[in-house]
Amino acid sequence: MPLLCRKITRLARPAHCPVFRASLVRRRFATYHTLQMREYYLATKFHIPPWRDGVARPRLLAGLDEGLQNGRKLTLVSAPAGYGKTTLLAEWVHSLDAPVAWLSLDEADNDPARFLAYWLAACRRLDESLGQSAQSLLGMPQIPPPAAIFDQLINDLASLEDTAVLILDDYHVITNPVIHEAMEYFLDHQPRQIHLAITSRTDPPFSLARMRVRGQLTEVRAQHLRFTLNEARLFCNQAMHLNLTPDDVAALEARTEGWAAGLQLAALALQNLPDRRDFLAEFSGSHRYVIDYLLDEVLKGQPPEIRDFLRETAVLQRFNAELCQAVAGTQNAADILLHLERANLFLVPLDERRGWYRYHHLFADVLRAGLPAETERKVHRQAARWYTDQDLLAEALPHWLAVPDAYQAAQLLDRLAADWLKNGELQTLLGWLEKLPETAVNTNPDLISYKALCLLLTGQLDHAAQYAQLAQQLFEQPGADAGPGRLLAIQAWFAMTAGQPQAGALAQGSLEKLDDSDSFFQAIALIALGSDYAWKTNLPASSQVFRQTYQLGQRMNHPFITLGALANLAFNLLEMGKLREADALCRAALAEYVDQRGRPLPILGIVYSSLAAICYEQGRFDEAQDFARRGITLSQRLFSSVILGGDSEIVLARIAFQRGSPEEALTILAETAAAARQRHVMMVVYKTAVVQAEIHLMLGSLAEAKLHLDELEAQAQASLPKTRQIFAHLSARYWAAAGQPEKALQILADLVAAAQVEQCGRRLMGAYVAQALIQQRQGDQLQAQQSLAEALRLAAPEGYVTLFYPHPGWQTRPLLQACHSAAPELVHQILAQATPADGPAPPNALLPEPLTEQELNVLALIVDGRSNQDIADELVISLGTAKWHVHNLYQKLDVRSRGQAIAKAHELGLA
Amino acid sequence: MDRSDLSQQYEIRVKGHLDERLFHRFEDLTITLTPAGETILAGPVIDQAALYGLLNRIRDLGLELLLVQRQPDENKKDERDV
């Protein structure tokens, strides 16, 4: 593939490592500020190691180049420790002209959220515009499956013009199967612009055999990495200046089996020995493990001060001179580091400035092995203090745990948790919570709260509830303080999802106690509070809270909270009769949350269900359906079921009904309810029951409607007025259909009064429409027109359309025409849109020959007891035409009389 | 990269009968289920990195490892992968 290789050319080898003066090194340390330190520390993960080994390995580089030029997907450098894997790739990338991103992995990267965050950050080093859309998904309380995130990134990478090389160093530290699967997914979908190179001590669990067969894999293994005799000679005599005889080199090569680490140690040992022959003979004859033997020899050649320094600092994963000073108690740590680097003593620089280092992992393990336990504890304690002082808390934490000092560890964890939550690093937080002794967590209400929250967000509701309860018990003991703010926030959230009325009080209590640093818990409490107000039909207060949450989300720079608040606010506005504002808010978000290329960020999915509901009310069913489907896809792929509330499914069901497929509508609702019940999200079960009842009422299937109504009546609580009002509205329609219009009208009058007080515009319109329906049936045309006109006047400026559409039990056309003057444009729009295709009477479809719309109008009037002349007047047709319609519908219904027609209409749900 | 075959024959025994749906995870190996209720995975393993990778996969599947043994191979004189 010549296309790929045009940019890949050999560059001149970099000069050997530069020598730094100790004074310079020291001055640099003094200039660090804490924040820079943090960033700088993290940046070391992307640092491309310098290549300075001294032995060029052209035979291996040629193979790597070939793989890249042939467009293979993956280079795998797989060999045990000390074979020079990293060194080889460092040499390679220094020779490449292609853009390279390097990521050094460590154990902490086993959290998928963190692993992916570093991946994206590494890609951004190739091109700033890469991975924005993927990045937006990482801030979720529970991160989406990695494949979904990679999808976004893969799109971006596919737009790169040149081939880029992405290197993952030390992949063997990854043990989380979620990450392995994600990597396999990436390999399966890898854009041709990316070449992946991985070093690992063990073969990663990808389908390597398949990739081999397909020629997608370049492998460098131990057999390739072993130094050949010639390479060993170059290393000993040129790089290390040992001037060994060919026999000596051969003996060394044979005993170390070409193992780079062994050769290097042997060379180091030989440098300081007067009698090399004795050493070589003894080494060759020894059966001791090569590294133990050689390291002893090398350390023997070092002054005690250096030996102690090496052993003690080997406990540290990474270090700079200051940290070494704190740990080893030496004043000249910077000089010692310089000495170690010059003497090639296991030191790996992690940045350009020689600020941070680590030891070669292999040597660190062996060095540390000789350290007395007491000294190791001391080192951990000093390191923990130093990191804590530097505010590098995540680095301090493992050291406090190793001391072990559970108290300090718990304190730190408490301070770190908010950031992890914000970044979606739940696995990291849960992981550390599990590493702390159980008593340290279970006696600390804040940590229990965090644990409950993590479990809640990962969908482990039962577990989460257990912890919330455990925390509760702590505060019920005599003398204990009232619950802390965080715990109350969690309890409020639980109360909200369970539909319990105390959610608001809990949330308010929580907000009084939380301070601003606890923004994540504040957001949770606010959402619970806003939701509680909404269920208590205080929509203005609820909206105020959601606006506050929205602002908090923006301050936190947390799109999930911002858009979550926005979605809730939009639903409120829709309820309040402010459809335009709801629409404008959501559409503004659609325009705002796009990446640099103008594509919508997937996080927008949170507002899709609101948009679907808005479009539904506006009668834009195609658009509503599209938003609802995207919302559902997203919720299945990206969110846990705990977070989204079934609103998209409800819109789909309503559209199906409007389009004449009541069976489909009911199926969607039944499935949604079953899934929600299984996950104990009772709020969703409730919402689906409402719509099920609604649909059965419209179908005229009163028996089924009654079943759902009974269920809803049982759930309607005095403490949650919204549930009572919803029930009241539905029961009014039930009584109307069941032949008790007076009872229905009484209920509706109360509802109208309440909705006016509570500024529930949408419910007010709904009640007016229901009144009109009943009044029309009663023959009270004037009253019916007045009611409908009220609804139209409220609806017109805001664009509510769908609630006026006809359905089987109610033919709106004549009435709408009569009310034309109340809102001419809206009526015109409704009549134009509400074609039979939008609202055919589904039971009507069951007839051998369905009734036309006009026949349905006529039937409705017959059911209302009107004469043929009345019908003609009402529908503005001639008496003859009216009779003709009556005749035709008799035939279609297979009836002989008005009485039979009325009975049949009820039987079929046409009245 | 040249892949001159230095692989060694290995036999790995794990407790229980491995589910057939998992066979594809061990693409290069012959899988035998014994009457004694063990599973034998046998076949060539390129080197130590591959062997440890294989053992990791066995670990990640939650299998109980009973035995890992390199089979004597008369054709191979190279003793380096000891």
Please give a structural write-up:
The complex is a heterodimer of chains A (about 900) and B (about 80). Chain A is mainly alpha-helical. Among the domains of chain A are: about 50-225, P-loop containing nucleotide triphosphate hydrolases (Rossmann fold, 3-Layer(aba) Sandwich), CATH 3.40.50; about 230-300; about 550-645, Alpha Horseshoe (Serine Threonine Protein Phosphatase 5, Tetratricopeptide repeat), CATH 1.25.40.10; about 845-905, Winged helix-like DNA-binding domain superfamily/Winged helix DNA-binding domain (Arc Repressor Mutant, subunit A, Orthogonal Bundle), CATH 1.10.10. In chain A, the strands form 2 sheets. A 5-stranded parallel β-sheet of chain A has the order 2-3-4-1-5, with helices on both faces. In chain A, strands 6-7 form a two-stranded antiparallel sheet. In chain A, α37 packs antiparallel against α38 (about 680-700). The longest helix of chain A is centred in the middle third of the chain and has 18 residues, at about 540-555. Chain A is elongated. The two termini of chain A are about 70 Å apart. Residues about 1-35 and about 835-840 of chain A have low confidence and may be disordered. Chain B is globular and about 35 Å long. In chain B, strands 2-3-1-4 form a 4-stranded antiparallel β-sheet, covered by helices on one side. Residues about 75-80 of chain B have low confidence and may be disordered. With about 80 residues, chain B is α+β, with helices and mostly antiparallel strands. Chain B has one domain: 2-Layer Sandwich (Alpha-Beta Plaits), CATH 3.30.70. At the A-B interface, α4, β5 and α11 of A face α1 of B.
Summarize the structure.
The complex is a heterodimer of chains A (911) and B (82). Chain A is mostly helical.
